[in-house]
């Protein structure tokens, strides 16, 4: 860690690629994080019960077992933000990750600087007093804070990529939040959703 900089916390990581681990370790150290690597989900879950990490970075293997690790972290009341990475990501996988509690879904190859920026953003989101706030659409399940933010940007006419840049997320992650909003609202697409919000379409008059 540079100089006498105080640690910003531990980042628990599962990453099978040695070169990526080395790059991540260097980038996180430069940003005052301590990186703790784990060989598998079981060892990470065991350590997470003993001490709370600042953030968790999970690589998604072909068997998608990272989703099980993510769900277990939430069941064990580990509230640290979790970022999921994948070399073979898809919109469906991103949606599943978000539904399981991921703060972000990042496709490989990635730049380590981007990863650190997204870790910072995820930790800041959790630390903000309003991070756990919920928003409502009449007649629907309440939206999370992140879903509410995405909805505001969609209503302003921003694209997924524009929203991703503003919220320091990946486009896949924004797609996951958007899918969650549409499902909760019972809307077929964003146009249908906005009609409901502005009272032009559905019987619910959202």
UniProtKB/TrEMBL annotation:
<feature type="domain" description="HTH luxR-type">
    <location>
        <begin position="141"/>
        <end position="201"/>
    </location>
</feature>
<dbReference type="Pfam" id="PF00196">
    <property type="entry name" value="GerE"/>
</dbReference>
<protein>
    <submittedName>
        <fullName>DNA-binding response regulator</fullName>
    </submittedName>
</protein>
<dbReference type="InterPro" id="IPR016032">
    <property type="entry name" value="Sig_transdc_resp-reg_C-effctor"/>
</dbReference>
<dbReference type="GO" id="GO:0000160">
    <property type="term" value="P:phosphorelay signal transduction system"/>
</dbReference>
<keyword id="KW-0804">Transcription</keyword>
<dbReference type="InterPro" id="IPR000792">
    <property type="entry name" value="Tscrpt_reg_LuxR_C"/>
</dbReference>
<dbReference type="InterPro" id="IPR036388">
    <property type="entry name" value="WH-like_DNA-bd_sf"/>
</dbReference>
<dbReference type="GO" id="GO:0003677">
    <property type="term" value="F:DNA binding"/>
</dbReference>
<keyword id="KW-0238">DNA-binding</keyword>
<dbReference type="InterPro" id="IPR001789">
    <property type="entry name" value="Sig_transdc_resp-reg_receiver"/>
</dbReference>
<dbReference type="GO" id="GO:0006355">
    <property type="term" value="P:regulation of DNA-templated transcription"/>
</dbReference>
<keyword id="KW-0805">Transcription regulation</keyword>
<dbReference type="Pfam" id="PF00072">
    <property type="entry name" value="Response_reg"/>
</dbReference>
<feature type="domain" description="Response regulatory">
    <location>
        <begin position="10"/>
        <end position="123"/>
    </location>
</feature>
<dbReference type="InterPro" id="IPR011006">
    <property type="entry name" value="CheY-like_superfamily"/>
</dbReference>
